[in-house]
Amino acid sequence: MALFIVRHQHDPDHCPATDPYMGATLLNYLSRPNVRQHGIAIQGEAVIKGEHTLYMIVDADDAERVRAFMQPFANAGTVDVYPASTCARVVASGGCAAPLPVVDDVVPALDPEDACQSAIEAGLVVHRAHPLNCETSVAALIGGVVMPNAHFYVRNHFQIPRLDPATWRLHVGGVVERPLELSLRDLTTLPSRTMVVTLECAGNGRSRLAPRVPGEQWNLGAVSTAEWTGVPLVEVLDRAGVRAGARGVGVPWRRRRPACGSPGDDPLRAQPHARRCAGIRGPARLRDERRAAADPARLSAASHRAQLVRGDRGKMG
After folding, report:
1. In the listed set 84, 117, 151, which residue is the last one of a domain according to the structure?
2. For the chain, what is the domain count?
3. What values do phi and psi take at 160, rounded to 5?
4. Minimal CA–CA distance to 271: which of 235, 309, 300?
5. Within-domain flag for 97
6. Rounded CA separation 30/25 (Å)
7. I need a surface site. Which of 45, 163, 202, 291 has the fewest CB within 10 A?
8. Is 236 helix (H, G, I), strand (E, B) or coil?
9. Whole domain around residue 189: which residue ranges?
């Protein structure tokens, strides 16, 4: 739905509130059940005292639907309908007149406005609205060891994927004997481990550096601790059968639009060494739960494909 600001003005001599019956009719017309029947949602309303002017914040599919709802008010005065945006949308767009960023179509992504608004409501300190980057508040950091998901700091270079647990798949290919396609349910049936781990952005505290250096100007909240549960990567590699000559595990993904000032349309690859990942006690794991609560919507957009690579690092097998 789109957001609109509605302004209604009427002549002081025809103020409906001066008539108890007209006033009651007005209240009933603005009631939530009646408003829902018109296919709109009133987020807020206020009358400027002594000015006979009503303002409303309205959600609706289009301006015509709003005007149709406001017809009784138009009969009693004037009605103006203005397209509007939330502050979160304007900041995510980069200006009052700028369009909302177009998210990549590689994977479904969260609406930047909704993602930013959720972070604000959770009490995170927003540094960038799109791509969303937020730090944990100092109050939350000193409130306990394990950080709730909603308060965990957020570091993004790109959009936030919106993944469907039922259709999400992990593809494992490359220098392997048996290419795999695993669902989230498949992963949950594999042996898993739980670890309490602290994550910290390398730039945590950057705002305190002098002279100022480029990058997100974190204070001290780009750090959080959580209990992570996931399948050790060696479990998946064993099932795929790593062939001789494999040198690394590549996790490629592609983004169409530049973000955070980086040039766009270049493939990015995370490539840990294959032997390290295949080690019996190797720490690499495919995380499917955080704090023992499945959270597939936050799975990395890069986690849908892993490929064993051979030869020199950086060359895909």
Report:
1. 84
2. 2
3. -100, 120
4. 309
5. no
6. 9
7. 202
8. helix
9. 169-194+226-310
In the block, tokens 């209240």 appear at 27
DSSP 292: T
CA distance 155 to 167: 25
pLDDT digits (tens, 9 = 90+) for 209-267: 999 999 999 999 999 999 999 899 889 999 999 998 888 887 765 554 444 444 444 44
Helix (H) or strand (E) holding 183: strand 180-183
CA distance 227 to 233: 18
173 and 306 in a single domain? The answer is yes
Residue 38's pLDDT band (cuts 50, 70, 90)? very high
At 29, which CATH number? 3.30.70.1060
- Other beta carbons within 10 angstroms of residue 155's beta carbon come to 20
Tell me, what DSSP letter sits at residue 70?
Answer: T
State which amino acid sits at residue 170.
L
Report yes or no on 111 lying in a domain: no
281 with 174, same domain: the answer is yes
- Other C-beta atoms within 10 Å of 307: how many? 21
127's CB contacts (< 8 A; 6+ apart) are: 133, 134, 135, 216, 217, 218
Residue 202: both structure tokens together: 């390398």
